[in-house]
Amino acid sequence: MEALIWISLTVLVVALPLIYPRWRLRRALSRPLPPEAELMLQRNIPVYRRMSPELQQQLRRMVVQFLHQKKFIGCEGLEITDEMAVTIAGQACLLLLNRPSKVYPALHTILVYPSEFVAQRAEVGPGGVITPGRQSMLGESWDDGRVVLSWDDVRRGAGDWTDGQNVVLHEFAHQLDSESGRANGAPYLGNPASYREWSEVLSRDFQNLRMHAMYRQPTVMDHYGATNPAEFFAVATETFFEKPYQMAEHHAELFAEFLKYYRVDPRQWMSPPAPPPAPPEHPASYAYGW
């Protein structure tokens, strides 16, 4: 009898770390997102009001899970508010709609700075000489379970949902990219056969963007996407969610790949962009014979 008690206690000690977090998560998910938090989603995710009730419900549930599982840390004296946490969680979870996901399982911490922050960078010079450098950043995604964001730029991204510039979408796209093992522009696609078409389309459009960036030609996507394939995927994600009509028109095959990956069509949440104004008519010209 005593041996049976010790075995039961041992099993309980081993199982408790696995069972307790799941119980706490189920308990958290049983509570709806507070009304004031939903108002924050409406304010800071302009497309939220135009999403279907089903997608809104999905997003609210994932935001509850995100807030339950992730830790927010303010840097340089910044105090994290509910508005900051809900805004970041809501934008990050947009990337997970209609997709089987555990809500960024490898992520545990979001560091938030008041504005741009300086990161230390090692620069490789001629002859392979490495010198320390400093670079101003709006956000970073690390493969150790952390994301770093500038709150000023989070707000700026929320304020204009049509410019293709959104630091939360960008950095959390890197998190998705890393789920395949490393950030290389090829996130986990589920079906191995999908990688060939994905690679063909993204490689071609990446090279085209590099060419446009080299000659400083205007493009739908930000030229920063020409840095490397990982940045191209992140920039293309920003474009997909904020400039879907333009992306579908100028990068039809790329847009189709992102439709399959993200399983939503952001065009359903946005109005088509206004056509450019017609050029003014040229005044009649006259030939004067003096």
Description:
It is globular, with a radius of gyration of 23 Å. It has one domain: Collagenase (Catalytic Domain) (3-Layer(aba) Sandwich), CATH 3.40.390.10. Strand 5 (139-141) and strand 6 (146-150) form a beta hairpin. The chain is α/β, with parallel strands linked by helices. Helix 6 packs across helix 8 and helix 9 (244-250) packs across helix 10 (252-262). The relative contact order is 0.09. 49% of the residues lie in helices and 11% in strands.
Strand content: 5-15%
The top level CATH class name? Alpha Beta
Alpha plus pi helix count: 10
> Helicity level, as a percent range?
40-55%
Strand order of the largest sheet: 1-2-6-5
Query: Count of DSSP E strands?
Result: 6
Report Rg: 23 Å
**What would the CATH topology be?**
Collagenase (Catalytic Domain)
User: What is the 3D form?
Assistant: globular
Which structural class matches the secondary elements? alpha/beta
Order of helices and strands: HHHEHEEEEEHHHHHH
For the terminal residues, how far apart are their CA atoms? 122 Å
In this structure, how is the largest beta sheet organized? 4 strands, mixed
Unreliable runs: 11-18, 283-290
Mean pLDDT: 86
Look at the structure and name the CATH superfamily: Collagenase (Catalytic Domain)
